[in-house]
Amino acid sequence: MSNRIQIFDTTLRDGEQVPGCQLSTDEKIVVARKLEELGVDVIEAGFPISSPGDFLSVVELSKAVNVGVCALTRSKKEDIDVAAEALHHAKRGRIHTGIGSSDVHIKTKFNSTREKVLEQAVWATGYAKAKGYEVEFFAEDAGRADLAFLAKLVESVIAAGADVVNIPDTTGYCLPHLYGKRIAYLFEHVKNIHKATISVHCHNDLGLATANTIAGLMNGARQAEVTINGIGERAGNTSLEEVAMIIQTHKDLEMTTGINSKKLYELSTLVSEMMRMPVQPNKAIVGANAFAHSSGIHQDGFLKNSENYEIINPADVGVPSSSIILTARSGRAALKHRLELLGYQPSKPELDQLYDHFLIVADEKKNVVDDDLITLVANTPLLVQK
Ligand SMILES: [Zn+2]
């Protein structure tokens, strides 16, 4: 089995479902071109039957990029017909069709039975396949589905022509080891599983989307469905930048992606600004504080060797440099470092004197900035200036 992980980006479909984050077709094209440059393998561009805007976006994105373009459908004839039409210009089009697979979805969402759902799934897969595109089947709420039934469903849709089968944890319910076991179970029990790529699509309701995605990949899945900044329904989807950097950082996983990590920060900022959806400062990889050090002990250790407190070089994700934030908790090492960046070379007694003055300023202000340091130096007569 190849260890190359396909990155399926759904920022423009699942991510765009967030209230207030809707983008125009032109804006989607800008993001899609950047996603292509970033190195994603497939872009899910919309749900064509849901609105004329989504239909148009799938049409225009299909023209605009050379990577795979995917259109979402329910397992209904009219959905698949409209998606196929929207994908007409795609260099590599994919229809993403599917149906609920858990008993709760089967009974209360579809008022149906396992047998009827299985029949519908096989029919929809075959019908989509006949359109001449790649077909991905999603078994909605697979995280809570009966495993034996899920295995039967997966085997049946692969037999019907599915190229990719998506095993979503739609509700973000699973624990990583159990989600991983679900994927492993499918590899053990689905006879034709090697004819398709297994995909993982996790939601973050319990903060486990990334962990579950990695668990799925470790158990044989070879496609990860992700969004920039982890945006998506409710608590969001798996974050693209987290999955990409976990794979890049942990060589022991023996996996690769096509992602150029140096473009991650740029994409994060673009999507955040366009969707007017701020990134939380402590967000892994792309948050404003992801490479900022503020406590004295950490600053001292970081300045001696960045590897003491950083496992990723900020330049690898496109962040220009780490930052040393000066607060009342900072020590002499951090103050000296920031003074040196401003061109000052304080001696030991000068630094001691400056540090006493610095603490007074830092107690008054939360964050001591360069202008404060310049004033501090000007008001410290002992100092031999640059
Ligand atoms: Zn989803």
From TrEMBL:
UniProt keyword annotations, A-Z: Acyltransferase, Amino-acid biosynthesis, Branched-chain amino acid biosynthesis, Leucine biosynthesis, Manganese, Transferase
The enzyme's E.C. designation: 2.3.3.13
Residues in Pyruvate carboxyltransferase domain copies: 5-265
Top enzyme class: transferase
Cited InterPro entries: 2-IPM_HCS-like, AIPM/Hcit_synth_CS, Aldolase_TIM, LeuA/HCS_post-cat, PYR_CT
GO molecular function: 2-isopropylmalate synthase activity
Pathway info: Amino-acid biosynthesis; L-leucine biosynthesis; L-leucine from 3-methyl-2-oxobutanoate: step 1/4
Pfam family membership, one: HCS_D2
Family: Belongs to the alpha-IPM synthase/homocitrate synthase family. LeuA type 1 subfamily.
Protein name, per record: 2-isopropylmalate synthase
Organism in which the protein naturally occurs: Chryseolinea lacunae
